[in-house]
Amino acid sequence: MNVSEKILDEIKTGKSAFRKVTITNVNGIQYIEKKQQFIQTLKLIGGDVTEVANESEVNSYLSQKVISGKKVITILKAEKLSIDKNE
Amino acid sequence: MSFSHADNAAKFIADEARTDWHDETLWFIRSKRDKAAHGLPEWEDLRQAASDIKEHALNNLDTYLIQFENNALANGVKVHWAYDGEQHNQIVHSILKNAGIKKMIKSKSMLTEECHLNDYLKHYGIEVIDTDLGERIVQLREETPSHIVLPAIHLKKEDVSATFYKHLQTEKGNNASRYLTRAARTHLRKSFFTSEVALTGVNFAVAETGSIVVSTNEGNADLGVNSARVHIASMGIEKIIPEAKHLAVFLRLLARSATGQPITTYNSHFTKPMQGKEMHVIIVNNKRTKQLANPDFRNSLKCIRCAACFNTCPVYRRSGGHSYHTAVAGPFGSLHLPNIDMKANADLPFASTPCGSCTNVCPVKIDIHNQLWKWRQVLMKDAYAPFGKKMAMKGMAWVLGSPGLYRFAGNMARWVMRVFPSVLKNKKMNAWYKQRDMPTPPKESFRNWFITQKKDG
Structure pTM? Predict the structure, then answer.
């Protein structure tokens, strides 16, 4: 593997490692941090976060989906939360 | 110079008048930045757009780097990849060696400072002349830059005059700015026209076109590149932006955030080598992929090196850039450098209040103070904190973890403060007392007072 391949490979690996770590870490963090981290995660994994509908929807989503252990890539839309893609 | 920010800062602040002057000078630049930012109604929208563009670029960095490389190659540019600083220096050296060149001019590049390029090339007998005026002044004094935008901001014109008298044979004691500037210009002109290689940094690398953009106020990068036969540009992998139109966002933010100017004087686009000349771009990782994979510190790769966080930081302003014992000082250096060498830079994240002013002024919305706080946690956990601090933290955790112990410690502390005030006023034992008065100890704890008040109705 040459240098450019090594760097590009690390970038790709970093992206996938990042997904796992962050979703795992969501559990056990205080609510407001969960929300912020959740939105940040969505942005970082390429989600197009435009607006959060309201706090209770985010909280409800976190308790139902993320804490249950599923790996989910989600796009938060202006008025509602919707799951566009599951991994 | 010590490898402790606190020790270096203590030396810096010993000269109170200079400390006040340094503080005021940087605050003046911060005020100019505020005025420039407030003059744009869309300022906050620009910051958000810049942050989003960088986020998108980081999410797709692998794709954009390949796109940039392909376009640069198609333009006739030679593209090199360096895994770390050592490899970057080797590549620069091999280009110089192949061309049989022993002298190189260099415009400002924080990446080359990070890689210690000048020292590396000096070891091989190659002379490097920094052409940015501030960089040249500190180079003549054998110092590192104390600020990434204003490398000689720690020096007064009297210091510059003494430096030029020693190295450029100017008149002794002539402090006139115009005279000193003219002397610098005459001195540097020779180097511009006799050097065959010019190295520049990269402010932005445009994936869409494969071109690089270099921003300077002195025009030294342009003069150097246009005079030399070989142009080498060194860039970190995070300098990528997807399209040329995105420059409209970043260039407006960069100059205003850095110096309060509406636009940097020279924003030069280099796309391909001139006829008969060579252009090399070195894409450098130097542990940035490690930063990219870390959710806590990934955001710091958005940095556009404006140094607004330096100018606003109360610790930087009053402790000076050299207290950070690295060429990349200030709040950003404190974020960036522990990732490269955690042990050597373990003290830097503690050189912060952290008041959050850096985060407020950051044009790409990096949560700098939060990241410094997170670095402190990493450093304590990975045992890079000083032994005394580690023990103190363990002791505090033990005391605060038990209500009984906490009450006992409180009673003891109040008793010691009353009976043996000299212990707490001992400046060696209690650094806090060095510049502050100790409060008069209360007779009882708030808890006891509250219980008594409640009983008394």
Answer: 0.82
